Amino acid sequence: MRSEKGEEIRLKGIAASPGISIGHVLILKKDGVVIEERTIEDTQAELLRLERAIEKSTRELEKIYSTAFEKIGKDKARIFEAQLMMLSDPIFVETVKKRISSEQKNAEYIVADEVNKQTEMLRKSDSEIFKLRALEIEDVKNRIIRNLSEAKLRSRFEGNPIIVATELSPADAVLLSRNAVLGYASDYGGARSHASILARSLGIPAVVALRELTRHVKDGDEIILDGYRGTVVVNPTPETMEKYVTRKNSCDAFDSELLAQAAEPGLTTDGHRVKVEANLELLEELQLLKGHGAEGIGLFRTEPMIIDLNAIPDEDYQFETLRQVVEAANPNPVVIRTFDIGGDKLFVEEHSEPNPFLGWRGIRMLLDRPDVLKDQLRAILRASAYGKCKIMFPMVATVEEVVKARKILDEVKYELDSKGIKYDKDMEVGVMIEIPSAALMSKEIAKHVDFLSIGTNDLVQYLLAVDRTNELVANLFDEFHPAVIRTIKYVIDAGHEAGISVAMCGEMAGNPLATAMLLGMGLDEFSAVSSVLPVLKKIVRETNYKSARKFARQILKLESSEQIRKELREYLKQRFERIYYTTISEENFD
Amino acid sequence: MIQREVVVKNRLGLHTRPAASLVKLAAKFKSDFFLERDGYSVNGKSIIGVMTLAAEQGARLILTFDGPDEQEAAAAVVNFFDRGFDEI
After folding, report:
1. pTM for the whole thing?
2. Per the CB < 8 Å rule, is A85 touching B17?
3. ipTM, 2 decimals?
4. Which of A210, A336, A569, B81 is 20 to 30 A off residue A452, Cα-Cα?
């Protein structure tokens, strides 16, 4: 399949999962189906194949439509009516047929290509609504393609390829991880998309948001993927290759050195103890926690259950999921966060808000929907009998909300007692501090809870009034803004004053630049994506707490994020040069 | 050929449901029907096309009708836009 070697191409994307891979490209199209581009000879037969696949898809969708009509009502079933219309869209079907005849290519390829062309604008849009709409259209495409190539579902393949796709779904990532995949690279996606989280937890290097990668590669091309820096090189020259082989060897060696030490406790050179824990949202990640040295799960996100089911899961479903997590982590604790989701995610059809980040989400929604909250609290309490759980409420803004939530928790406990259902009576209750009002009230809030956990992503957004998904202001989203640093310090002190521990589970907790500073500010628990835990452990274990405190005091005096970043970089570069060069620095390479 | 400029009036914009209704309405006429926004043009008889037109509330669109019943088609479609797709 490989033709003559093309020119070296370098593309810059977002580093989604660390590590360096060198290998050959395998292009993957949606749904785990690898769509091959074939030249066909019998055009009539190919057109017939297309018609049959469309007929079959229509029958499938009609069935779904009538079931949906009965079960969820006419309004919600409309979406499938629209999908049925797409299958008989005269312009689309005619275009595909014409292209099959004129280009002499197989139907799968033309259908995929035509739909991708149509949805490109939507996929590139920043609007979640338009992205969802692209998915609706792609759903139809996938249905046709599946019916075209029934027996050709390719989730297994030979060799150890680097998978290249327009976008990777979590299902793809899971399916593909059963093979020996060396890495993932995709045109779209973000560092926090599910497939990226999964790649990190599976330890597979990944780079996403490369925009036009799929246009530049073909199956079998040689490719280098740098998951530390978010770079991809296609058809590298021998010089580039040599450089990367050296870099890969040194990074891999350092990586195994870090992993070998990962199981050690988070203890500074002068005996100060902090906990290094993992953020988790998928059960597939559980197996990796031990290897990365997680001393518990500092944040277990429950929203994926809603997203998977496209509905609020009932108590038993939640309990089963949570029990697995709690058992796997035992004897280490699991902090279970109640649904942190906006009304837009829960009631897609009838609910939409102009400004969901400032809207009905997190604890606000849960307190308005005690039925949902109680189901979840019962599930968490029941799971607490199988190990050690803590419960955490997101998006708290006032003391009253905490009091109300705790009151409902007491009601649920009383109910379980009367039924004789077992649970951990000493289960700790905490809140996320991510709204500025809660940060300012953290002394008062701390009196009502057993721990605080700082969520930096939302805190930064609300404190600085910056929507990071808005390109016009995204550069103002700055987690090292002195106001952010000082707020964090204030919350840590407030927690300690009340005699409770303070954790951080936002992105900053996993940023090696911030580790020594946070340690010096007195943070008790760091919770981050599991792949970065060995790095955090190393920094903690090789830092003197007293000097970190001094360092933090200096940082707190600075007036600009530029100064703060400079100091943090200098600090890391001087003391942890290899960490600095593998994860932070863009210098001296490329 | 006739052209008309319309504004999307309803809060949710030209989303899936009105897109389906619009295409059904356009199919009743023989004339060709195109919608254009910021230089991006789609065939109004293609549901996939109309869905890819990211037209939110307030979006201005140029509609083009061309064929034997273009007057009737234009009147019906513009009326549908004016009614805010029956969602206001």
Report:
1. 0.66
2. no
3. 0.89
4. A569
